[in-house]
Design goal:
The complex is a heterotrimer of chains A (about 325), B (about 500) and C (about 325).
Chain A (H helix, E strand, L loop, with lengths): L1 H26 L5 H26 L7 H17 L4 H26 L3 H19 L11 H8 L1 E2 L3 E2 H19 L1 H11 L1 H6 L4 H24 L13 H11 L11 H20 L6 H18 L3 H11 L6
Antiparallel strand pairs in A: 1-2
Helix pairs in contact in A: 1-12, 2-7, 2-8, 2-10, 2-11, 2-12, 3-4, 3-5, 3-10, 4-5, 4-10, 7-8, 7-10, 8-10, 11-12, 11-13
Chain B lengths: L3 E12 L2 E12 L3 E5 L6 H8 L7 E6 L2 E2 L5 H6 L2 E4 L11 H6 L5 E3 L8 E3 L1 H15 L14 H14 L4 E5 L7 H16 L3 E5 L3 H7 L2 E6 L2 E7 L5 H9 L17 E10 L3 E9 L3 E6 L5 H8 L7 E6 L2 E3 L4 H6 L2 E4 L3 H5 L6 H5 L4 H4 L8 H14 L16 H14 L4 E5 L7 H16 L3 E5 L3 H7 L2 E6 L2 E7 L5 H8 L1
Parallel strand pairs in B: 3-10, 3-11, 6-9, 9-10, 15-20, 15-21, 18-19, 19-20
Antiparallel strand pairs in B: 1-2, 1-4, 4-5, 7-8, 11-12, 13-14, 13-16, 16-17, 21-22
Chain C lengths: L15 H25 L6 H6 L4 H16 L7 H19 L2 H25 L4 H20 L4 E2 L3 H8 L1 E2 L3 E2 H19 L1 H18 L4 H27 L1 E2 L7 H11 L11 H20 L4 H28 L6
Antiparallel strand pairs in C: 1-4, 2-3
Helix pairs in contact in C: 1-12, 3-8, 3-9, 3-10, 3-11, 3-12, 4-5, 4-6, 4-10, 5-6, 5-10, 7-10, 8-9, 11-12, 11-13, 12-13
The chains are: A mainly alpha (about 325), B alpha/beta (about 500), C mainly alpha (about 325).
């Protein structure tokens, strides 16, 4: 009984994803191995990023600088790789960078009680300004060798990209953490009813600070996953990615106001958003339609979540509920 | 000798301007249902807030199982085994019942052997415990249902289950039946009886005498923050309870004048709102003050909201000066000369960070502004000065922020704001709640002068002396219906309470 | 009994007193910045150069005026930059296909207003918060501007058109400054002494009470977002006059400049409190910074970076002040 209700929405999303893939395979060239392959490649960083964004959104916050954080992550990792440091060094450095930057966002928001939207909006600009100004070559790093790209370009059995497997593993881990730790519950509590969370002994400030750190970690991973697919790194590529993450989360059923939603939903959402965009490409739309698409997706999904269908429900309830005695 | 689990002795608590509790004492025995009874404002909720740590007593002692007790906050109270059943505010609507019950104190299991400090949530154990709890309560429930989908009664059950999940031995129920149907009340009582057999001690706050006689073992009556009497329910009569709740001398502080009451200016016929208001009718005459009495939850405010367009009735008619009018929103009501002054200033009355002047003239903005919407500031100053004067609002000037005024003065600003629209019919909802004694009588004076000026007033009040002192007639409500009416000559506190309870 | 009307200390006075001194400080900051840049690059002190700083404030300033209304209600409009971009693209497209300047102007204004209207409808009719709404519409408008323009950009506007932005009054002061001042006067009047301004502040503090007072808050919200769209379109025209080209990247940095100007000027991001005068000075500060940076050879990116930093600092400072205010408050008996 439990499983059925909880996964019913996710179940539908998953079914939708499957249906979409089948449909696309049958009607376009998508079904070929190259199509599926590029999907796995492109969608992996988005999956991780969407999860990161979901966690933040659960608590009722947001992070508009996620994309630029990923840019920094990529830069740091690339520079260290180029300088000859081994894999585990540049990966950890990248992840740490992510945690630092996201953690900074969270810290400012919590300490000074400034809404995260504005903090991350401003920090986004600060990030962009920073890497274009202070980083050599505006953050571009070229001619990266195999030591860097083997992760992004490698495959298991020649078919399944490493990064896809990593993304799935990360997703599974996050799903588990959110469900099976007190921290996971606290996320929903803080976003759902802050006062009640305090009554329950949860510290909203600590929870929010922690979730930004976790987001940073995940963005670090996502950044690395994306960066290692190419042999050159251009931080500007990452700019604006957060919109896709938000769209993915929202399509996946995460309530933009916080307090509910499932990580699995965000994962499916990420895939769906990807499928939608390539559908548009197949239909002949140029890829700058992406922006408009994302905008509409977000609006529709949020509308559904936020609209109070209570009057409708009330009418239904009236039809079935027992009359109140006088 | 029955064991005393909780004891409060000599408790005093004062808030600025108001003495909430005075030398209050009460004790709770193990496994008893101890009802706490008193009028609105007698001090019951303050008492509960002291026990659960929301407030700290100024003096006096609280003892738990014989040991002195200090509770710092509600969470602390839970830890010590004391739980209060809120109506709704402490649940998470988007989470499941299971998640709500254990939020903050989930049951955990350590990860495989080696990594001992890392633990994860143990759902099977939680389900088992929740199952036990609901079993004890005699209920079947879907642990995975979302709280948002539950009725108020079910949510209450979740709150109770939550309290029990802390292994609470003391449960405080604050007006638990306020929003329940009679069938749900029966279920609740069954639950309470079961809890009692399990040794849970309960404080049951209510003014519904029928229920007290049904479920409680002992009853304590509080009046004006003081302990009046405690007795066994089996040995007390209803009349005695009423007498204890009421027994005070009636000082005539209320400047009621004899005014000639005119024709009917306002009439409501058969107002109905599903589940809330059941066919209530009333008439109001020029210069008349109609008091509406009743207990909390009787539907007085709900009725008022229907009368002034803030809520839509399912059926019913409103007539102004004999003509049927359609009041679809508050704007319509204002245009008809009807205004509503709520006790909840934050929600309905005032924009607290704004100045007195800005607040008073808010409904008049359209009238006060000329070209481009520029406000005529001299006119504005004139209007606010007039009202500050007339209502004796104590402030160094009209440009002072309302936030810095005392409760009484804030209420006056609220009244001024309503008066600024020059209404003919005023609906006052608890006009002197949270107001100190001095300002209280001033507000009464204002109300009287309004009646003298030919305005018609409906006054909802839980303050019996107030309603008796001010009203020409008193209509008593109970359970969303009109229970009866008493003319001024026949008013007595006992009669009102009898109808209300 | 009479109410007393003696004067009292500033502590419990209404907010305007405190705000006034903040704007004065802001003015000092402006002067200090001018002096600073002047020292670094003495040419800065030349009147022409000084007045030139106001050339960019035309666009930012006009949008900031409308944004002040919006932020005062506790809302925000993240799509302003892209409304401008869309309006500009529409202008270019219509001009190209019809050759008529008048038509292009009309369509461009209509486009901007329509965008603002979309924002307004969603915000006033649904429960979707302004933040999310404009986050989404920002993408939408940007996307539409790309759809219309493709990858091309428009150029080659008639010479006469440029004049609206490049004409120099008294041969010195850019005409845009006058547009800005002109609009500022109206906006300020309505904001500080008009019923609209008071309603906006009320909405920012407690919309419920305003509805209860008979004020049609939803209508007001619709109005201000639509107005903002219109202002963005006007700003687009001015921007186009200056640049003589319409590109699909125009909108990217504008958001930050507009919001920073408003927040810097003392309008609280939480709503209820604000100052149009502050916005005015804030816009000038941004103009000075822009010009100053160019003169000392700082790129546009350093400018954005500095702006972002300024925004964060301003937010933090205001948040701290607000916290402090909450914990101090006397009760008058």
């Amino acid at each position: 009984m439990a499983k059925k209700r909880v996964t019913s929405r996710e179940f539908m999303l998953g079914a939708l994803v499957l249906a979409f893939i089948v449909f696309l395979s049958l009607t376009t060239g998508f079904g070929s191995t190259s199509g599926i392959f590029s999907m796995m490649l492109d969608v992996s960083p988005t999956i991780v990023g969407a999860i990161a964004m979901s966690l933040i959104i659960f608590t009722g916050n947001i992070d508009i600088s996620a994309g630029t954080i990923m840019g920094f992550v990529g830069f740091v990792a690339a520079v260290l790789a180029k300088a000859g440091y081994p894999f585990y060094v540049f990966v950890s450095a990248g992840v740490l960078t992510g945690m630092l930057l996201a953690g900074l966002n969270g810290w400012i928001s919590v300490t000074f009680k400034v809404p995260s939207i504005v903090v991350t909006l401003a920090m986004n600009m600060v990030h962009i300004g920073f890497y274009v100004t202070f980083l050599p070559n505006a953050g571009w790093v070229l001619n990266l060798s195999d030591s860097f790209t083997f992760l992004g370009q490698g495959r298991f059995f020649g078919i399944v990209p490493f990064i896809f497997v990593i993304a799935i593993a990360v997703a599974a881990l996050c799903i588990w953490i959110v469900k099976y730790t007190k921290f996971g519950k606290a996320l929903y509590a803080v976003g759902g009813n802050r006062q009640a969370a305090i009554y329950a002994g949860i510290s909203p400030d600590r929870t929010v600070l922690t979730v930004y750190l976790v987001e940073g970690l995940l963005l670090g991973i996502a950044g690395i996953l994306k960066a290692t697919t190419a042999n050159r790194l251009m931080p500007s590529v990452f700019q604006g990615r957060e919109m896709i993450f938000i769209a993915a989360a929202v399509v996946g059923g995460v309530n933009i106001m916080g307090g509910s939603g499932k990580v699995l939903g965000a994962v499916f959402g990420a895939v769906l958003v990807y499928l939608l965009s390539i559908t548009m490409i197949y239909l002949g739309f140029q890829d700058y339609f992406q922006f408009a698409l994302q905008g509409i997706i977000i609006l529709i999904a949020v509308f559904i979540t936020v609209t109070d269908f209570a009057p409708l429900r009330k009418r239904l309830k009236k039809a079935f509920a027992p009359k109140k005695a006088t | 000798m029955p064991e005393v689990v909780l004891q409060m002795e000599g408790i005093n608590k004062t808030f600025p301007g108001v003495r909430a509790l005075s030398n209050m004492s009460i004790d709770l025995r193990r496994g008893e249902v101890h009802a706490v009874c008193g009028e609105n404002g007698a001090g019951k909720s303050t008492l509960m807030k002291l026990i659960t740590g929301v407030y700290q007593p100024d003096s006096g002692e609280i003892r738990l199982n014989g040991q002195p007790l200090k509770v710092h906050n509600p969470n602390d109270a839970y830890a010590k085994g004391i739980a209060i059943i809120f109506q709704e505010t402490s649940l998470f609507p988007d989470l499941t019942i299971l998640e709500n019950i254990f939020m903050g104190h989930e049951l955990r299991r350590p990860l495989a052997g080696i990594v001992r400090f890392l633990s994860f949530l143990d759902y099977p154990a939680m389900r088992k415990k929740a199952g036990e709890i609901f079993g004890r309560l005699g209920m079947e429930i879907d642990l995975d249902a979302r709280v948002s989908q539950l009725s108020v009664a079910s949510r209450q059950m979740v709150e109770i289950a939550k309290a029990l999940s802390f292994d609470s031995s003391i449960l405080i129920l604050d007006e638990p039946t306020a929003a329940l149907t009679s069938r749900e009340v029966d279920t609740l009582f069954e639950t309470i009886k079961k809890l009692r057999t399990h040794g849970v001690s309960m404080l049951y706050i209510s003014h519904r005498l029928d229920e007290i006689f049904q479920i409680a073992d002992r009853v304590t009556v509080i009046r004006d923050g003081e302990h009046v009497q405690t007795g066994d329910v089996s040995r007390v009569t209803r009349d005695q309870l009423v007498a204890w709740m009421v027994g005070r001398t009636l000082d005539n502080l209320y400047p009621k004048e004899d005014i000639e009451i005119g024709e009917v200016v306002f009439e409501a016929r058969n107002m109905r709102q599903e589940g809330v208001i059941n066919g209530v009718s009333l008439t109001l005459r020029r210069g008349e003050i109609l008091g509406i009495s009743g207990l909390a939850g009787a539907g007085r405010t709900e009725l008022a909201l229907l009368l002034c367009g803030l809520a839509r009735p399912d059926s019913g008619e409103i007539l102004v000066d004999g003509t049927r009018v359609a009041i679809r929103n508050y704007q319509d009501a204002m245009e008809r000369g009807i205004c509503y002054i709520s006790e909840d200033r934050q929600k309905y009355g005032l924009v607290v960070p704004m100045t007195i002047s800005e607040n008073i003239t808010m409904p008049l903005l359209a009238r006060l502004s000329g070209f481009l919407g520029i406000i005529n500031s001299s006119k504005e100053r004139e209007i606010s000065a007039t009202y500050i004067d007339n209502l004796a609002i104590k402030t160094p000037g009209a440009d002072f922020v309302v936030n810095n005024l005392s409760g009484g003065n804030q209420q006056k600003v609220s009244v001024a704001k309503a008066l600024a629209t020059e209404p003919r019919i005023l609906i006052l909802d608890e006009p002197t709640r949270g107001v100190d004694v001095g300002a209280k009588s001033e507000i009464h004076r204002i109300i009287s002068s309004l009646a003298r000026a030919g305005k018609s007033i409906i006054m909802i009040s839980s303050d019996l002396p107030e309603i008796m002192g001010m009203s020409d007639r008193v209509m008593v409500m109970k359970n969303g219906a009109r229970q009866g009416e008493l003319p001024r000559s026949a008013l007595s506190q006992e009669k009102i309470l009898h109808m209300a309870l | 009994m009479n109410g007393t009307t003696t004067t009292d200390s500033t502590q419990s006075r209404s907010v305007p007193r405190i705000k006034f001194t903040y704007q004065a400080a802001l003015g000092l900051l402006l002067i200090a910045l001018i002096v600073l840049f002047g020292i670094l690059q003495p040419v800065f002190f030349h009147l022409n150069v000084l007045f030139d700083t106001t050339s960019i404030v035309g666009e930012i300033g006009i949008m900031a005026l409308a944004m002040t209304f919006i932020i005062t209600t506790g809302g925000i409009d993240l799509s302003v930059g892209y409304i401008l971009q869309l309006s500009a693209i529409v202008f270019g497209a219509v001009l190209k296909s019809s050759g008529s300047l008048a038509l292009a102007i009309v369509f461009s204004l209509a486009a901007g207003t329509a965008c603002g209207f979309i924002n307004g409808i969603i915000i006033s009719k649904t429960k979707i918060p302004p933040l999310v709404t404009t986050l989404a519409t920002m993408n939408l408008f940007r996307g539409v501007s790309f759809i219309i323009a493709g990858t091309s950009s428009y150029a080659g506007f008639p010479a006469g058109f440029k004049l609206i932005s490049t004409y120099l009054v008294f041969n010195a002061i850019p005409v845009q400054f006058f547009y800005f001042i002109f609009l500022f006067v109206f906006f300020n009047l309505v904001y500080s002494r008009g019923s609209l301004g008071r309603s906006l502040k009320g909405i920012g503090f407690n919309e419920g009470v305003l509805i209860f007072s008979g004020i049609r808050t939803k209508r007001i919200l619709l109005l201000i977002y639509t107005l903002c769209g219109l202002m963005c379109a006007i700003a687009a025209l001015i921007y186009l006059g200056r640049l003589s080209a319409a590109k699909t990247s125009m909108g990217n940095d504008l958001n930050l400049q507009v919001i920073t100007a408003v927040v810097l000027g003392g309008t609280s991001i939480m709503g209820g409190v604000g100052s149009m005068v502050g916005t005015f000075i804030g816009v000038l500060i941004i103009g000075v910074l822009r010009k100053g940076f160019t003169l000392v050879n700082f790129s546009g990116n350093i400018f954005n970076f500095t702006l972002g930093l300024m925004l964060i600092v301003a937010l933090i400072v205001f948040a701290v002040i607000e916290e402090r205010k909450k914990t101090s408050g006397r009760i008058l008996k």
